[in-house]
Amino acid sequence: MDTVPFDARDGLIWYNGELLPWRDAKLHVLSHGLHYASAVFEGERSYNGSIFKLTEHSERLAASAQMIGFELPCSVDEVDRACAEVCEANGIRDGYVRPIAWRGSEMMGVSAQNTTTQLAIAAWPWPSYFSPEARLKGIRLKTGPWKRPSPETEPVHAKAAGLYMICTLSKHTVENEGYDDALMLDWRGQVAEATGANIFMVMGDGRLHTPTPDCFLNGITRQTVIDLARERGIEVVERAIMPDEFAKATEVFLTGTAAEVTPVGEIDHYRFTPGDITKAMMEDYEKATGQTSKESAKAAASAAE
User: Which residues of the chain have a pLDDT value below 70?
Assistant: First the structure.
């Protein structure tokens, strides 16, 4: 993976309606979004020159902004066009797209009614979120130290910057112990998600089970995989899941824009082997997104072994 810092790269970033040189796309240190996490963002992937589910992502960006109390400075259609424009300007056919909107620097304090909304969009080449080796055999998860809070405590359905602080803390904790990612429980002790991806498990009944997204993001990839599973005639059950139920799971995988469909081989002391349903979801998602990745093909073949 490219190790060049993200503020020292070449290219163009769409910033409030203009394409700026990458290194010139800056914000002031006293921006409200930096101090009070009043920022929302999206993560999108471009495959073969087309951003997957682009409008759904732009719509969610606008909805997230509304949930934390501000409006985007442009329409969903304009965000769509800007995302496509920045990919074309940077020659990105297969890569990652990051729109982000935040409150500006007109006010410094908890109150922010008179701040302007800033919007920027960047795109860059980005391979798999997890290493190819980890994906081939299934990644390793450990239950993290932080829990997803109650919906009464924060806007849990917004893709907002502040909601990811506990994800970073949890991921750092388990990475320091040699794991790939953290499993996050919710405030009730129920299974919620990983730090940046939703989770699915195949039980002995052959059905696909996934936690009800009542206190975490109902991912666009999650929704896509549910639709793909049902098209195959696989029953999907959304319900409350307790951690000890992993003892009865035969397969586990994660879904997300960055993670795509990633097999899980280990959670705490539980072990899993990527099987037929995981393989099918990987293959179907690759077809849906128009992927031609050799790495994805190898991962799917390994999941069948």
Answer: 1-2, 128-136, 292-305
Burial class (CB in 10 A: 0-12, 13-18, 19+), 279: buried
* Residue 75 Cα distances to 122, 219, 262, 280, angstroms: 18, 22, 33, 37
Helices (H) and strands (E) in the chain, counts: 8, 16
Q: Are residue 92 and residue 42 in the same domain, yes or no? A: yes
Return contacts of 230-237, CB within 8 angstroms, 24+ apart. 231/284, 232/280, 232/284, 234/206, 234/207, 234/208, 234/277, 234/280, 235/206, 235/207, 235/208, 236/207, 236/208, 236/209, 236/210, 237/207, 237/208, 237/209, 237/210
Q: Is 159 a catalytic residue?
A: yes
pLDDT tens across 152-205, in order? 999 999 999 999 999 999 999 999 999 999 999 999 999 999 999 999 999 988
How far, rounded to the nearest angstrom, does the alpha carbon of residue 140 sit from its chain's CA centroid?
Answer: 18
Residue 130 to residue 295: CA distance in whole angstroms: 12
- 7 inside domain: no
Query: Which of the listed residues 106, 124, 142 is the one where a domain comes to its end?
Result: 124
Q: What is the pLDDT of residues 236-264, one digit of tens each?
A: 999 999 999 999 999 999 999 999 999 99
30 and 113 together in one domain? yes
In a domain, 47, yes or no: yes
Residue 261 sits in which domain range?
Answer: 132-304
Which of 90, 105, 124 is the last residue before a domain boundary?
Answer: 124
Split into its structural domains, the chain has a count of 2
Are 102 and 239 found together in one domain? no
Do β-strands 139-143 and 260-267 pair in parallel, antiparallel, or remain unpaired? parallel
Query: What's the predicted TM-score (pTM) here?
Result: 0.91
- Identify the active-site residue in 159, 171, 287, 294: 159
